[in-house]
Amino acid sequence: MGHNVVQQTGPEQRKSGETLVEMVARRLRDAITSGALKPGDRLPTEGGLTQEYEVSRTVIREAIASLRADGLVEARHGVGVFVLTPPAGAYDGFKSADPNKISSLLEMLELRAAIEIEAAGLAAIRRSPAQEEAILEAYDEIERLKQDQKPTVEADRAFHLAIADSTSNPRFREFLQLVGKQIIPRGVLAEGDTERSSQEYLQQIQAEHLRIARAISDQDEAAAREAMRLHLKGSQQRYRNFIKRG
User: Fold this and answer.
1) Structure pTM?
2) What string of pLDDT tens digits covers the 246 residues of the chain?
3) Which residue windows are coiled coil (predicted)?
């Protein structure tokens, strides 16, 4: 594609309270849903997008990670990022979930555990080399953002979606997309604000992510299930503590 995806957009054209990542992701989503970008189209290169939007490469990577998490684009190793057919219907999530209630967030985590423990086991059995690489790339992206002290919510979501994809059963991804942003509760708690998670907190999460990724990479079904179980059970306790602290 030699033409601009959208008109040049400077920071002054962002919506109120919108981050650069959100602005770029929104404009690209608009281009996809409007048909300006069609299924099968390749996005401009990372360098081209940084020039087009006048933002850093980090912003572009995070925006594309958000689109990947929503099933709107896919990265093909060594080729580029391509537009997918938008999922049927809007994934608005479970509207009854209340971020101000511990019980509501814990209900969502319990439901995720019922699905994602199975997904981790299936991913360990079924993952292809490309799917394994996608999981590890998502892990690395969280680590990079953590080291840069930047929000990791979208990258965390992409990690779990990469595991869902590795089951080779599209229903797992569809379920997580239906859950929406609430798949990562800290993203709901910090909505509209800078992520306030401590480095110690994120380090613990990353240690759990690494155990999951390694078990899937080793094709160890039992270890993958147990690693995901410990991760989500640990999350339940962390969010109890997080909300109590206010």
Assistant:
1) 0.62
2) 444 444 444 443 565 566 888 889 889 988 887 788 999 999 999 999 999 999 998 889 988 988 887 788 998 888 899 999 876 544 444 554 555 566 777 888 888 999 999 999 999 999 999 999 999 999 999 999 999 888 888 889 889 999 999 999 988 988 887 776 666 766 555 543 334 457 788 899 999 999 999 999 999 999 999 999 999 998 888 777 765 655
3) none
Residue 192: inside a domain: yes
Alpha-carbon distance 158 to 67, whole Å? 9
Domain boundary among 42, 59, 83: 83
Number of other CB atoms surrounding residue 130 within 10 Å: 12
Maximal CA-CA distance, the chain: 52
Residue 10 lies in a domain: no
Domain count, the chain: 2
d(CA 133, CA 44): 22
